[in-house]
Design a protein that fits this description.
alpha+beta; Alpha-Beta Plaits; 4-stranded antiparallel beta sheet; 27% helix
Length: 77
C-alpha cells in the first residue's frame, strides 16, 4: 500500500463543505480541517502511486473551491 498526505487550500468558507465531499472518496483514509498555511489535510491510502495521483489530480483538484494541493508520499508504513 501507498500512503500520502495532501495539503489543501480552499476558497474562503469552503473547507467545511469540501470536507464532506473529500471524505467520500474511496482512497481517503482520513480528512481534517486544520489551522495554518493549508485548510485541509487529507490522508490517502491506495494500492499504487498512480491511484494517489488520480485521487489528487482528478478527484480532489476538480472539486469547486479547491485552490491548491501539495501531495507528500509517505516513505514508510
Amino acid at each position: 500500500m501507498v500512503h500520502a498526505f495532501v495539503m489543501v487550500k480552499t476558497d474562503v468558507a469552503a473547507s467545511e463543505s469540501l470536507l464532506a465531499d473529500i471524505r467520500e472518496l474511496p482512497a481517503v483514509a482520513e480528512a481534517h480541517i486544520v489551522a495554518g498555511a493549508y485548510d485541509l489535510i487529507v490522508e490517502l491510502s491506495a494500492r499504487e502511486v498512480y491511484d494517489i495521483l488520480g485521487t489528487t489530480t482528478t478527484d480532489i483538484q476538480s472539486l469547486e473551491g479547491i485552490l491548491e494541493t501539495k501531495t507528500y508520499i509517505s516513505l514508510d508504513d
